[in-house]
């Protein structure tokens, strides 16, 4: 359990504002350090064989201007690709980007650290309509990215999480989900969220990711 919670504490989270072609957006930002060379981290986030081990199976025309899809859910276009430092994609859910699913972009920036490590930054800018953001706040996407970065960290350390669904149902996975939702609540407060709204959003996010056992 301690290593999982240490991974959660390693991430710096922020909520901000940005824009995408669809309009004004809010951003969730995750920053952390990985004890791995920048080329190794870049390969882990762009190599389909390694992507499926920590994220999801990704297929498509994986080059600048090409389109990708991940396990029939997220899909989009590769907007920028500057190895080994910058990857930016449009990030859509389902066949259409409507008021419920929203439309968004994900950008990953890597910087080589002084000791053979890598500074990792992920920014997800999203236009999200009712009721997703008002109900869940930044935890709507933030908890999912926390889980992904945990899995990426384990892969880079020589291991991996097998069966994401199984992990999320385990005691340590459930505790991770609760603490991640709370951490995104703190980021929401720091960005000026109203305390009552933030508390309700954290509760809704926690119930979504950590449902009561059947």
TrEMBL record:
Which residues fall in a coiled-coil region? Answer: none
- Superkingdom of the source species: Bacteria
Q: Which Pfam families match?
A: AHSA1
Residue limits of the Activator of Hsp90 ATPase homologue 1/2-like C-terminal domain? Answer: 35-132
User: Which Gene3D superfamilies does this chain map to?
Assistant: 3.30.530.20
InterPro entries xref list:
ASHA1/2-like_C, START-like_dom_sf
Name the protein family.
Belongs to the AHA1 family.
Q: Which protein are we looking at?
A: SRPBCC domain-containing protein
